[in-house]
Structures are given as C-alpha cells and as structure tokens.
Write a structure and sequence with these properties.
Radius of gyration: 28 Å
Number of helices: 22
Number of domains: 3
CATH superfamily of the largest domain: EAL domain
CATH class of the largest domain: Alpha Beta
Oligomer: single chain
Distance between the termini: 50 Å
Number of strands: 21
Strand order of the largest sheet: 13-14-16-17-18-19-20-21
Helix content: 40-55%
Structural class: alpha/beta
Largest sheet: 8 strands, mixed, barrel
Strand content: 15-25%
C-alpha cells in the first residue's frame, strides 16, 4: 500500500475515534506532529494552508509560534491538556480560536495523541487540526434562534419559561414578589386579513421594539406565540402591575405603526398572574395568564383569580386513573398511524404511531387530551407499554413495515419502567430493527446522561432512536448529539409557514447542515402545505410528515399523491 494512503487511513481512524462527526474529511484536516515539544510540522503543508487560511511561509514552525496566536486562556488550557498525556497513546481534544497572520480569528479543533515521551512527560505528539469555524458559527446561530423569536428578535417561549422557573425559585426561597404579563395584539388577524401577513409581521416587530424600550432591567420580554407577548416582572406587586399596564396601554395603543398602508393602531388585551401567591411554577404562570387573558376585554387588563380556574380544573380532572385503567383493560387504547415520506422520492418510509383513547360511548380522543392526566397519575408507562404491544402486533401483521413510537419521561426516568420497556423491545427479536423510539428534546435535555444511556440500550437492540420536537429547547446541537440519535424531528412550530418566513428557512437550513455534519437524518413535522414541502425539499430535509401526506388513521395506509 502507498505510504501516503496508509498515513491518511491511519489519521482518519484516529480522528474518527475521537469524534462522531460523520462529515470528517481529511481535506478539512491538517495532520501535524510536535517533536521535542518544540518543532511543529504540518504534512502535507498545502493542507495546512487550506485549513489555517494562511500561506505556506506563514505557517508556524514551532510550538511557541503557534501558541502566540492563541489567547492566554487557551494557551493555559492547551498546556494543561498536553501535560495530562502521561502515557504513550493518551489523547486530547481541544477547541479554541486561532489568529491568522492577517488577524482573522478562526475556530480550530485540535486532536492529538502522545507518540512518545520520557516517563510522564510527553516529547512527541501527532494528530490533526481542523478548521471548524463554520460549524461553530452555525451552532452559535442555532443556539441564538433556539432562545429568541425568529420574527421579532425578543426571547421565545422557552426563554420565558426558564425565566419564570427562575423567578418561581426566587419567590419560594426569598418570598419575593413577581408577575407575568401576557399581552395580546387582539386585532392582528384583522390586519393580516386586510393588509396581508407582511404588514401584520411589521406591526408585531414594531410592538416588540416598543415593548423592549419599556421593559426594565432585569425584567424579560418574550414572544409566547402568535400575537401573544410575555413580560416577566421581577419584584412586582399587583399595584406595580396596574401602574405598568397603564403605561403599556398608553405607549402601545396611542401611537400608530407606520406601514406602506399608512399608520395602523394596535389593540391590546392583557392577562396577568402573580408569582408565589398564585403561580408556583412556569407552567402555572403561563396557564393562569392565558385564562386571565381570555377574560380580558380590549384595552383592559384582567388579573388572574383562583376562581377562574375552577371549571378548567374540573375538566382536567375528568380523566381519572380508573378511566385510563379501564381503557387499558378493555383494550380501548388504540394507535393511529401517520405516514412519513422520503423527501426526494416521495415514497413512504415509515409511520409514526400516535396514541388514541376510545371512550365507552365510541368517541375517540387524541393523546393530548389524556396523556397529561396519565403523567400526573403515574400511569403513562402503562400507555407506553400498550403502544409497544400494539406496534408489535402490527409488525407481525404487516412484514416490512417500519414504525416510530413515542416514549414518555415517566418511562425513561423510572429505572423499573425503563428496564421493563427495554426488555419488551428485546422480546421483539429481529422486529426491533423495524422500530424507531422517539424521545422529546426537553426530556432528553433534562437528564442527558439518562437519555444517552436509554438511547444506547435501544440502539443496541437494533432499534433506531430519534429526538422529537427538536429546536424547541435551548442547548447546543453538539450537546444534544452526544445522546447519539439517528434522527431529529424538527419541531412543528419551526415548520409551519416556513415557505413565507425567511428566518425559519435560515434556522431549518442550519439544522439540516448540522445534522448532515453529524450523520443524522432530519424529519420535518406538521407539513400541511405544498409550498412548505417544496421549501423543505430544497433545504435538504430527509423526511416529511404532516396532513399533506396523510392524517393519523386507525390502520397504516398511504396513497402517494400527485406532485
């Protein structure tokens, strides 16, 4: 074998062992060797020129010259990593910024291993350096978009949720006050209908700007959804809330928004709830503020009262543990099958299995109407097991079919339930290869180590593993990929209307690029429109799911539609 070819193969194996990046290419990597901890060699030099964005005569020849292009903090981190190479074959991996001879900053990933040394002291090191600037910037941009509303630039719902959880914790520990204001631009639908969505978006953006100028430090402004904005107020009593809302109404409703159609006035309603005295958590605050908002009249605020939730609580409790147990025992828990198609070929790939509960009167209700009750009552693991049993029966009926099943936090986080579920998967034997297990991003991120262990167990049986609702959380792509998913399902809120939203297109494109870098498939959820499907196809999404391709049905069936 040609020596250069053998060397490339060896470096590829080294790099592959250190990083799960499926897109690793030696054309993007510069092999190096550090001899006597002094001399720095890049071979081939032209590869280093390409990777380091420099010229041949500007490539550092010594370790000291290389370190001179780093920040003092990165120099110390690199020295520390090298000092830990106390045996031959020991490895390290670093990510840092490196300054080119032109003064530009690039991100370099350095992967090295000790080749030789004197006792605990390394002397010779070999490895590769990669320019990962694009990846780092994509991750940074994705993280920004995961924390900010893509239209207005203010915080998104997830950021508001985290802020409320922080405030709830402070309120409980320090008995401090705080509140959530939920503002709705009530005439936005009229503006959209008369002047178009572009004008409506202009109005939303302007209102977000005005709210940003009003919000105090450390209060947090965010867009919850649609035309609903939230302001988390630290240290605000009910009297403070009233004063603040009076100012909001004056500043937001009395000055028109300039548009190509002239000045347009907004109409606002506000619902509020107090932390500590009313809401004890972020979910409670969001729910209570919405209840109050629905009761608020135009240009008025409605403050939440416990009595407002009595009817909602009664309805919520309508699904009891006995209702769920009876449905399980009487085999009234069913699956509905929604097709997922290959984007390029428009051919069926697999089905997602969605839980349904059939009432004794024959009414069939979706999981959204009973799954939270099941979680609250500690019965959700039984539903997960029942879904798996039904899927197993379908696999026997239809050889070759591939099914995706959702698994709940209650199953994954409980050691006993998790072990029983894994055992049930193992009992499928070869059929396990026809199953994809889906876990939501929020559950995965709540305990990444737990999620990673569960993923490894599932994949060891031949199943595929997917992260659902991807993009709804707030972690970096790299952290999430440490869980080793085969597929990510992009959250439907990022997909709806993507054809008419350049910001969503940017976000989806970055997610697809990153997924391809890590060798992960992508599924777009809630694809209900031909224009959206066409855009997603151009963006490189692997699979599509939504009403455009089929509604969930009692039996797996799919008919290819005309393009």
């Amino acid at each position: 074998m040609d020596k250069s070819v053998a060397n490339r193969d060896r470096l590829a194996r080294i790099s592959g062992a250190w990083d799960g990046d499926a897109a690793l290419s030696l054309m993007r990597a510069a092999p190096f060797r550090l001899t006597d901890m002094t001399l720095l060699h890049f071979n081939p030099a032209m590869q280093a020129v390409d990777v380091l964005c420099t010229s041949d005569n500007r490539i550092p020849k010594t370790n000291t010259d290389w370190a001179a292009r780093l920040s003092p903090e990165d120099v110390r981190a690199r020295d520390k990593a090298i000092r830990r190479l106390t045996w031959d074959g020991a490895e390290y991996k670093l990510l840092y910024q490196w300054r080119t001879h032109q003064g530009d900053q690039i991100w370099v990933e350095e992967l090295g291993r000790r080749k030789s040394g004197s006792g605990d002291v390394p002397t010779d090191i070999e490895g590769v350096m990669r320019n990962v600037t694009r990846r780092v910037r994509l991750e940074a941009r994705a993280t920004y978009l995961a924390n900010h509303d893509d239209l207005t630039g203010v915080a998104n719902r997830e950021s508001i949720h985290r802020t409320l959880e922080h405030l709830a914790g402070l309120s409980q520990r320090q008995r401090g006050e705080g509140a959530l204001l939920r503002l709705r631009l009530t005439n936005i639908n009229d503006i959209n209908a008369v002047y178009g969505y572009e004008t409506g978006d202009r109005v939303l953006i302007e209102f977000a700007k005005r709210l940003s100028r009003i919000v105090r430090t450390p209060d947090v402004l965010g867009r919850i959804d649609g035309s609903d904005f939230g302001i988390v107020l630290y240290g605000a009593s009910q009297e403070n809330v009233k004063d603040i809302t009076d100012r909001l109404f004056f500043l937001l409703e009395n000055s028109p928004v300039k548009t190509p159609h002239g000045g347009l006035y907004g109409e606002i309603s506000i619902g509020s709830t107090q932390m500590r005295t009313q809401a004890k958590s972020a979910d409670e605050a969001l729910s209570q503020s919405l209840i109050a908002l629905k009761r608020a009249k135009p240009s008025q605020i409605c403050m939440y009262e416990d009595s407002m939730a009595i009817e909602a609580a009664r309805v919520s409790r309508a699904t009891t543990s006995q209702d769920i147990l009876d449905a399980l025992n009487q085999r009234r828990i069913q699956l509905a099958y929604q097709p997922i198609i290959e984007t390029k070929s428009s051919r069926l790939h697999h089905y997602e299995c969605l839980l349904r509960l059939r009432r004794e009167d024959g009414e069939v209700i979706s999981a959204g109407r009973f799954i939270m009750a099941a979680e609250r009552l500690g019965l959700v693991h039984l539903l997960d097991r029942r879904a798996l049993e039904l899927a197993s029966e379908m696999l026997k009926q239809k050889p070759g079919i591939h099914l995706a099943l959702n698994v709940s936090a209650g199953t994954v986080k409980d050691p006993t339930s998790s072990s029983e579920y894994i055992a049930a998967l193992k009992a499928l034997g070869p059929h396990a290869e026809q199953i994809t297990i889906e876990l939501t991003e929020t559950v995965a991120l709540d305990d990444p180590a737990m999620a990673s262990g569960f993923s490894n167990s599932v994949r060891s049986l031949g199943c595929s593993f997917a992260i659902d609702d991807f993009g709804s959380g707030y972690t970096t792509f790299r952290n999430l990929m440490a869980i080793e998913a085969d597929t990510i399902k992009i959250d439907g809120t990022l997909i709806e209307g993507v054809a008419s939203d350049p910001n969503k297109q940017t976000f989806v494109r970055m997610m697809v690029d990153l997924a391809q870098t890590f060798g992960v498939n992508t599924v777009a959820e809630m694809v209900d429109d031909r224009a959206d499907a066409d855009i997603l196809r151009r963006l490189g999404v692997d699979y599509l799911q939504g009403f455009m391709f089929g509604v969930p049905s009692a039996a797996p069936s799919w008919q290819k539609r005309a393009s």
